[in-house]
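Why this split exists: single-chain examples teach little about how molecules sit against one another. For that reason, every record in the complexes split bundles all components of an assembly together and asks for one structure covering all of them. Below is a record exactly as it appears in the raw files.
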Amino acid sequence: MAKAYTPGLKVAAHGTYRSRRLLPIKGEVLVKAGDRVTPSTPVARTYLEGEATPMKLANLLGAQPRELPSLMLKPVGSRVAVGEPIARSKGIFGMMKTEVKSAAEGTIESVSETTGMAIIRGEPIPVQVDGYIAGSVVEVIDGEGVVVEAQAAVVQGIFGVSGEASGPIKVVCAAPTEVCDTDHIDASCQGCVVVGGARMTAAAIKKAKDMGAAALVSGGLDDSDLRDFLGYDLGVAITGTEKTGLTVIVTEGFGDIAMADRTYHLLKGLEGRLASVNGATQIRAGVMRPEIVVPLDAAGVAAAKAAVAARLAASVAHEEGSLEIGVQVRIIRDPHFGVIGTVAALPEAPAVLGSGSKARVLDVKLQDGSVVTIPRANVELIEG
Amino acid sequence: MVAPAAAPAHAPAPAAGAIKIVVATDCGSTTTKAILIQEVDGVFRQTHRGEAPTTVEEPFADVTVGVTNAVTELEELSGRRLINPDGTILRRTSPTDPNGCDIYISTSSAGGGLQMMVAGVVRQMTAESAKRAALGAGAIVMDTIASNDKRRPHEQIQRIRELRPDMVLLSGGTDGGDTKKVTELAELIAPAKPRPRFGGEYSMPIIFAGNKDAAAGVQKVFQHGGFDLSVVDNLRPSLENENLGPARDRIHDVFLEHVMAHAPGYDKLMRWSNAPIMPTPGAVGDILQAIARGRNINAVGVDIGGATTDVFSVFGPHFNRTVSANLGMSYSISNVCAEAGMANILRWVHLAQMDERELRNRVKNKMIRPTTIPQSLEALIFEQAVAREALRLAYVQHREFATNLKGVQQQRTVGDTFAQKQGGSSIVDNMALDLLVASGGVLSHAPRMEQTAMMLVDAFEPEGFTELAKDSIFMMPHLGVLASVHGRAAMEVFERDCLIYLGTCIAPAGTAVWGKPVARYTIDGVDAGTAQGTLLGGEMKRFAMAGDKRARAEIVPEKGFDVGAGPGKAVTREIRGGTVGLILDGRGRPLVLPSTRDECRRSMDSWVKALDLYPG
């Protein structure tokens, strides 16, 4: 069975979703196994070592480094405030003494007799990790964090910017093919995960941000609009730390492209439910895609299961991840970029492409009935 | 002084004379490539190759799974059993044993390769030498901290805190010189407490290669706080001398002891291997140096990947390597477009209709789906245009980095007054360049060899006489590590199987006026017999010259043009053929393309036709 060259993005109506919520360094876990958490529940906390402020005390005092310990007004380990005198020169005949005041608040960590430099260590910086999704704590990793689990619908996007956010889902486009523009965004979007249809315009992004939306999700985005939003041209797809005030997730790709039907209808069916989203994208070894996670209650799970069962009954069963005749694929490169179809044939022998290169190909039957030949590297599975 | 710890043990290698069958792998970020090398009729040849996905990440989290899979493919292709039932590499029991190999060796760049931070007192001197040592050892240099890098101390500390390098190389001061500045640097690094990339379970390795008199003070600074300090010879013992060997060797050892030992499955891989596992770019650098020194030539090698472009150069005794971290053809393609600008990319496109908005979206779509390949001719042409700019920018960075030692006092005579040469001038001299070797997807997998040759010529602008070649299946890493145990085998495979010679480019240097004569040429020995004529400004010509064929070329440049002997001076020499043959490039050097898009397109169109680059 041929495996797909490019694994597809996940569009799942339900499943068990787990999120590892870990501190960057060891600290304290604030919840216990079995606890219910919300996206904003603090689950673990720690303190990063404070900023280190170097001070060239010997230079400032006009003294030799080796003299420094005897000129210190406060010993190593003392707490000091900004502007508090910490060292004083001997002066000339006890007169004209030079005093150096601390440039930072904190603790004197070290004083070097070799270089005459002192390090003032600032207050520890608190770091907190929250629950991210509404769910249950299923595992506590001692001193590091927790694993939160929920039954949830999950949609992976292809690209996003900015980090975690949450809010109820609000679908603003009437169809997945509809461009998401300013007239779709209004004050009711405040705090919501706003779901559009096809390409989102620069003006729509700006308005969503101005209206206080938590996130904007749509099928496509123009590169030039992304540049306007970020204020710079993104060079590599490693995102998530942007401070844009709005998480943006693209489900299909760049340009005029409609959201996949299944993605749109899944999100439409979840309208009003609390979603957690993360725009963080890393396209490197260990790929990370942006995601929309919608925890489901028992009734939601039952409804999702029934919907999936109905869909599966209407189609032929396929092995997950396998590229076989009849499976649905998305073409991910021009000249048919974004088009969805089903695999019609999987010829064994490599074929010569229009570019002149030789590559393994497949035939894809499009929705209008036409069949196109595409390199296997240029399709991805639409996975449930 | 802290003695360096011994590197982890690998299986001992048999004597070179007993080595007849070699299995070599390169564990890349995404693919593990295996090759089988066998002695056939007294000559070493690469006979089979196999590949499999690299398995450093979950669910396997063991690099040896991918190695076993790739070697299994070799086994199937060669009919020779190479894997033991437990998945390890099978060794021969006797010279007549039909199964197994004599040695197994490997390189690795999986898990992002080796990532380092370097520090030195003066940015242009010790810090630059430290950077050269790290790059030469095959590392990616995340940042260079120097006392005079214009950042304030707290900014430097903040930067060090943010980085998560695999190790830190600290240098500074010449032996017997000032000790204070380098100790100060140590005092900035220690409180910043950089944390290693692979978890917090091991101490951050620090290599000190600075003023030997400062070693005791530096040791005192790093004695607490979770550091593993090793002290090696100063990499800049005097302003006039660089001594990078001990620092590079120690980097390799630390790479094995710490980085590899913490990467999944590498403890096993190290035990399987008969030679230390080398970082992939370090091995490529070694083989290029071996070839350049063996043939007594100057060589440049380039490897353009999805995320980065490595450039290696050997000019006389000088070896340099640079990594352009965000110049690549998939993950970093958007950055190439941002740095070069769309106008610079489009000057290499001869097609009329190209919508910029559409192109920008295509570039981003390639970035987010990096494994796709160009299907249409138009997409291929655009991708090769981007490649030219990525290569050009990477080479610019390389030329700026590969310089004479800075800070060395120059003795000048009156005759030097107008020469304007100074310390820090680039070692890279395109007129002295003899061999240009290409590797990496967009160059290696171009549907026509002419496309590879033209991308090299456009991006690197070789001057005078330059041989062009490509690494057939990216075998240079394997051969680099093989050279450390069997030099002859590595050389033989390199010449016979690794390199595909594309041919020779002859390019007079000087300012060309389109349509005006640049040089007269007489080439005796091209496929058609003798070629004779005048090369005009802006003109490119190609003469078929198959395989290993040699021809005699006489080039008489016009006044103001140089092909190696000086302006206007004729050169007659033997040239090598190849799959493309001989390219005469009359566009002048430096290469200046027409300023308007239309003129540029017309010129490009004529070069596409002259070299038969694309069908139709």
